[in-house]
Write a structure and sequence with these properties.
With about 220 residues, the chain is an alpha+beta fold. It has a single domain, classed as Pnp Oxidase, Chain A (Roll), CATH 2.30.110.10. The chain is built from six helices and seven strands. Strands 2-1-5-6-7-4-3 form a seven-stranded antiparallel β-sheet. A hairpin with a 7-residue loop joins strand 3 and strand 4. The N and C termini lie far apart (about 45 Å). The mean pLDDT is about 90.
Length: about 220
């Protein structure tokens, strides 16, 4: 994935995304081609860096993605924010007539070794942890024992042991502060509040620093100071 320096994901945002239990796409290559499955996940950190750890997953036993030998490393894609950006939200675009829309997003690409855990104890713990991340009043213990045993036999645990992580936050950081304000207002207007908050938190300060630097350089170059 191409990641310009100004679209790099800050460490605090990376850690926040991984800590939030969401869902993403597991992609693996096999002799017959690519297989992709949309899966919920939990992140298990295993080091000091935000990308050190494993993704805990599970799939249906009948899903051959876990049983067919994979070629090379596996890829898991997480995209917690993704929204259309209208050029009409940019004051500078309206003034110049350069009405080119774009798309803002945050995405993480996690690469690593995919390990299948065809083990009831491991899978039970994985499912219990995932359920606990989303539920506050229901646990596995509330289900009939025979029913739960059957459900657990129908799935297989997976673990993506992450070896590298590539992340990108394209949030209009390269626009003027006025344009960023327009994006925030526009996103709120269409109900994309989470992306709007990310733009306000990460893009607005970057755009302001960039604008200040441009103004400082221009001032230094002014003749007859």
């Amino acid at each position: 994935m191409y990641v310009p320096k100004h679209f790099e994901v800050p460490a605090e945002l990376l850690a926040r995304i991984l800590a939030a239990p969401l869902a993403g796409d597991l992609i693996t290559a096999h002799a017959d081609g690519l297989i992709a499955t949309h899966l919920p996940y939990l992140w298990r950190p295993a080091g000091d860096e935000p990308g050190d750890g494993s993704l805990v997953l599970h799939v249906a036993r009948n899903n051959t993605q876990w049983s067919e030998p994979a070629i090379g490393e596996a890829l898991f894609v997480i995209t917690p924010a993704s929204d259309y950006i209208s050029s009409l939200w940019y004051p500078t675009a309206q003034d110049s007539g350069k009405l080119v829309p774009t798309w803002d997003y945050v995405t993480l690409h996690l690469y690593g070794r995919l390990v299948a855990h065809d083990d009831v104890a491991w899978t039970t713990q994985a499912v219990a942890d995932l359920m606990a991340a989303h539920e506050r009043t229901v646990t596995l213990a509330d289900m009939p024992e025979r029913y739960l045993a059957g459900e657990l036999r129908a799935i297989v645990g997976l673990e993506l042991q992450v070896t590298r992580l590539v992340a990108k936050a394209k949030l209009s950081q390269n626009r003027t502060p006025e344009d960023v304000d327009g994006v925030i207002e526009g996103l709120h207007g269409v109900g994309a509040h989470e992306t709007a908050e990310l733009v306000a938190e990460f893009a607005k300060p970057h755009a302001e620093r960039r604008a200040a630097l441009v103004a400082e350089v221009a001032e230094r170059r002014r003749p007859n100071r």
